[in-house]
Amino acid sequence: MASTPKQTPVQDGQHDPEQPDATARAVTEAALFEAFGGVRGMVETTVPGLIFVAIYTADHDIKISALAALALSVVMGAARLAQRDTLKHAFSGIFGVAFGAVFAMMSGNAKNFYLPGMLYTLGLAVAYIVSAAAGFPLLGLILGPVFRENLSWRKRNPGRLKAYTKASWAWGLILLAKSAILFPLYWWGNATQLGWVKVALGIPPFLLSVYLTWIFLVKAPPPIDVIAEMEEAEKAEKARASSAS
């Protein structure tokens, strides 16, 4: 897992003229990689669904297809834990596949393997759009701690607020378009059609969303490192206490 390069504190909402573009790009790339899991995260999100639809296409056995997808997801999650990766990335895929497997086996409808993920995608799309329209973009809440800026972008860095708002709109609209393709297939298509289309739509929309986020944030002012500010304030307080004693 890539770590986020430490930021040099900057004045509220201002560009640091000495910070090279290459540094801003590297910091943004590292933060996005950490937040969204990178290439490995995309593979772990896509492959269980691919396994399910491939096995189901071959023999139309819901139970075997669901258990095979779940077993693979558990193996990938265990590999992350063995490498001491973040619990978020290790368990998020397992839970999603587990819900889908249970839904499919209990209902006897293979299409329900994909329903939890589809509902999550739709809910996330709505959350991105509503939060962006309300001026409190969800992407800022997700990436703020990764950039060590927390919520400073809300009041102190209007350029970052604008970038997060644009990126949240992008994520919301892209995920909404994905949902607009998948739900009609869920209602009127068969499980095989839904499965292969969902696999095909797994990575491209994600890559487009991440790329647009990167574009918006690279062009925005650098984050205000509030963690460094707090550390500096704590050091100054200790120095004053030492000099007074």
TrEMBL record:
<feature type="transmembrane region" description="Helical">
    <location>
        <begin position="195"/>
        <end position="217"/>
    </location>
</feature>
<feature type="transmembrane region" description="Helical">
    <location>
        <begin position="118"/>
        <end position="147"/>
    </location>
</feature>
<feature type="transmembrane region" description="Helical">
    <location>
        <begin position="168"/>
        <end position="189"/>
    </location>
</feature>
<keyword id="KW-0812">Transmembrane</keyword>
<feature type="region of interest" description="Disordered">
    <location>
        <begin position="1"/>
        <end position="23"/>
    </location>
</feature>
<feature type="compositionally biased region" description="Polar residues">
    <location>
        <begin position="1"/>
        <end position="11"/>
    </location>
</feature>
<dbReference type="InterPro" id="IPR016566">
    <property type="entry name" value="UCP010219"/>
</dbReference>
<keyword id="KW-0472">Membrane</keyword>
<feature type="transmembrane region" description="Helical">
    <location>
        <begin position="89"/>
        <end position="106"/>
    </location>
</feature>
<dbReference type="Pfam" id="PF11361">
    <property type="entry name" value="DUF3159"/>
</dbReference>
<keyword id="KW-1133">Transmembrane helix</keyword>
<protein>
    <submittedName>
        <fullName>DUF3159 domain-containing protein</fullName>
    </submittedName>
</protein>
